[in-house]
Design a protein that fits this description.
The complex is a heterodimer of chains A (about 350) and B (about 375). Chain A is mainly alpha-helical and about 350 residues long. Chain A is about 80% helix and about 0% strand. Chain B contains 14 helices and 13 strands. The chains are: A mainly alpha (about 350), B alpha/beta (about 375).
Chain lengths: ~350, ~375
């Protein structure tokens, strides 16, 4: 604090503190607090009493229609039928008003109730989807690691500088394209009438429902998040002194021993960061599972959260679901850090 | 690599961000903040109107015609579902837009937090609006306990689109049940949220699950669950028929053009556009149990700031010429009186195929939402998906 003051002077220091305060409160604490608060209450509409509200509204609508018809009747030429009609409408409206008055005495005004209900009402089917989403994200992370580790190692240690640059360029170019466009490209490839099935058709294979089976989600996700795994691993492997690998080889270590004893331990922080990023991105992905299943396969948990907010219009339960996912992700991060024995400082490097 | 890259970016940003830029920004903010309240107020209503409409509703030709006639500028944002506009309005406390186009049955969703303001009927040219549609809108929830919030704008239906080179149906014989027969594996399209409704109507019509033509869904939560459980039980052996679910017009079209479906539940415009633009073999028609009919309306959010201009726009949209321009643009049916003679021939022809004798009188209008409706329906949407 005093160092900050010494380096920047009182004005700049207070500006820095103010901006970081705005950042921390406005971008991190504020939204989370609002969400957590939302998740701890629900609107109590009085159980079965809600039917009364619905009936009152319907009677009011009837009165509006009757009043409309009455205006039509009043436009008719004066005649006994016209008067009778108007009198009849008036009588019906009066009747409805009596019913409404009686119902309104029993109507329950909705009230806000604080409780843990939003967390406990998650049914078996949603819990299953939650667990499935976490497991699927772990699987995506594993696949991405298996694909990326050899790639990162090759670029960092085996390839000539020129070739390494070309591989890097090849990896980066697709990322200059918007994620959604890349996912839609995969949709076109894997569609029932798509490119993949066309090619399979040439060798006489029946069309495969890639999307409906959920395979498409895995393919698109691994593709979409591969870079987030490659770069952290590449960064750490690159800092490994090549002479260590040569020394190990000179002492007769086989390739798998070199990787197990030297490269992997050195790359641990990079692997941890890559895994955390890939896991968080896939567990929190909404667009990829939505587009790549066309709504026919089981949804991901993120889609359930979206639906709670935007289809059921139940923001409270939606917040509880979102908070649950957040907690699961945080637990995963700490597990990864424990597993790879890396601290926050290593990751920040 | 990433760190190197970001270091470079930071350097560029630092170079760009010099003291002069900061001073400029601070000065601009200061002026805006100290500007007298009245001036800001008049700026906000100096001839513009913020419209939040369905993606295909307000096309450039309408904006142009309005700006030419009144000099008022339209700032257009678009949405794709009722839930989207509800959520956005609720998040902003009813502020940000002057005119929205909610479906008439969804009005109760705006009651919590009073997100809409009552309409001043004296400022609307009522004779421009079809009176039978006006009457229906009252029944369907355009008013809340005697106060009007919604003004009818247009209507359309959701029925069945099919490939007439694969299926053949006699006019007026097509039923919702025709999608749920053996031998249609992967050939049926639809959206879960209306499939559950049409199943209820169909099963009621053949006497399997009685629901008073679907009205029991709106009677009480227990009744809704009883009817929908019956629908799920019926649907289970036919789940394999479903080739694609859709949630918006684009997805509905690609269900037929890309996913290989040959019959399915769609909006009228989806089927009619497939017929006109893609292939004459696609036929849209209202099933004999009645097409699902929706009505969209105009509503003014409670936080609207450009009231004058908004009423101006409402009256403009309901003139016969603009009503017809809208109908020709979109294929929906306008609520504006006297627009029929401005309709295009293609539009008139498509209307005839879509609605066989008696189909208009037989339509099933979405009733007013009840507090349990959205969440229970979503529950069953998920159950249908997971069947």
């Amino acid at each position: 604090m005093s160092r900050l003051l010494r380096s920047f002077g009182p004005h700049l220091t207070s500006l820095i503190l103010l901006l970081s305060g705005v950042w921390v409160i406005g971008m991190i604490i504020g939204p989370q607090l609002i969400m957590v608060e939302q998740s701890f209450w629900y609107t109590d509409r009085g159980g079965d009493a809600v039917v009364i509200t619905v009936q009152i509204d319907a009677h009011y609508n009837d009165i509006d229609v009757l009043a409309f018809d009455k205006m039509d009747a009043e436009d008719l030429a004066p005649s006994p039928e016209r008067d009778a009609k108007i009198a009849e409408i008036d009588a019906t409206i009066a009747e409805k008003r009596v019913i409404i008055a009686e119902l309104e005495t029993r109507e329950v005004i909705p009230k806000k109730v604080y409780s843990l209900r939003n967390y406990t009402i998650m049914g078996g089917s949603h819990l299953a989807i939650f667990i499935k989403t976490i497991l699927a994200s772990v699987a995506v992370t594993l696949i991405a690691f298996v694909v990326c580790y050899p790639m990162a190692y090759t670029v960092a240690k085996l390839a000539t500088p020129n070739r390494a640059a070309i591989i890097m360029l090849g990896l980066i170019i697709p990322y200059a394209i918007n994620e959604l466009l890349r996912v839609f490209a995969w949709l076109m490839i894997l569609n029932y009438n798509g490119v993949a099935n066309f090619l399979l058709g040439l060798i006489g294979v029946e069309p495969i429902a890639f999307l409906e089976s959920g395979t498409g989600v895995f393919i698109a996700m691994v593709y979409a998040y591969i870079l987030f795994m490659v770069f952290p691993i590449y960064n750490t492997v690159e800092t490994l002194d090549t002479s260590q690998i040569e020394a190990a080889r000179d002492l007769g270590a086989p390739t798998w021993q070199i990787h197990r004893r030297i490269v992997l331990p050195h790359a641990k922080p990079g692997i941890a960061v890559g895994c955390i990023m890939t896991f968080m991105l896939s567990a929190g992905s909404y667009a990829v599972p939505y587009i790549m299943t066309r709504g026919t396969a089981e949804p991901w948990f993120t889609q359930l959260i979206y639906n709670k907010f935007f289809e059921s219009l139940n923001w409270n339960t939606g917040s509880a679901y979102a908070f649950t996912l957040l907690v699961a992700c945080v637990i995963f991060v700490f597990l990864m850090m424990r597993m790879f024995k890396v601290g926050i400082k290593d990751i920040a490097k | 690599m990433i760190t190197k890259l970001s270091n470079r970016m930071t350097q560029i940003a630092v170079k760009k961000f010099n003291r002069r830029a900061l001073l400029k920004a601070v000065a601009a903010g200061g002026v805006a903040a100290t500007m007298p309240f009245i001036i800001r107020q008049s700026l906000a209503s100096s001839g513009e109107v913020n419209v939040f409409a369905w993606g295909d509703y307000i096309k450039p030709n309408i904006i142009e015609a309005f700006e030419k006639k009144t000099g008022i500028k339209i700032n257009l944002s678009t949405y794709g579902s009722n839930e989207e506009v509800q959520s956005k309005l609720r998040a902003a406390g009813g502020k940000g837009f002057d005119l929205i186009f909610p479906s008439v049955d969804t009005r109760p969703e705006y009651d919590d937090g009073d997100l809409l303001q009552a309409v001043d009927e004296s400022r609307i040219k009522l004779d421009q609006i079809d009176s039978s549609i006006w009457r229906s809108s009252l029944k369907l929830g355009a008013s809340r306990r005697g106060k009007r919030y919604l003004i009818p704008f247009d209507w359309g239906t959701e029925g069945i689109t099919y490939d007439s080179s694969v299926h053949s149906f006699k006019p007026g014989e097509l039923s919702y049940g025709d999608m749920w027969v053996d031998g249609l594996d992967g050939k049926v399209a639809g959206r879960q949220k209306s499939i559950v409704i049409t199943l209820a109507i169909y099963l009621d019509s053949i006497g399997k699950v009685s629901s008073n033509r679907g009205m029991d869904l709106y009677k009480s939560e227990a009744d809704m669950r009883r009817v929908l459980d019956g629908c799920l039980k019926f649907l289970k052996p036919y789940k394999k028929n479903i080739g694609a679910f859709w949630n918006n017009a684009t997805e509905a079209t690609s269900a037929f053009t890309d996913a290989g479906c040959t019959i399915g539940q769609t909006w009228d415009t989806t089927g009619i556009k497939l017929h006109i633009d893609v292939d004459k073999k696609w036929i849209y028609t209202a099933p004999k149990e009645g097409a699902l009919a929706w009505m969209d309306t105009m509503a003014i959010p409670s936080g609207a700031t450009n009231i004058e201009q908004t009423y101006e726009l409402i009256n403009f949209l309901m003139t016969p010429e603009i009503g017809a321009m809208f109908a020709n643009n979109t294929g929906y049916n306008t609520a504006a009186v006297g627009s029929a003679r401005h309709l295009s021939e293609a539009n008139k022809a498509a209307f005839k195929i879509a609605y066989p004798e008696g189909a208009i009188a037989n339509m099933w209008w979405w009733p007013m939402n009840t507090p349990w409706f959205s969440s229970v329906r979503q529950e069953y949407v998920e159950k249908v998906t997971a069947l």
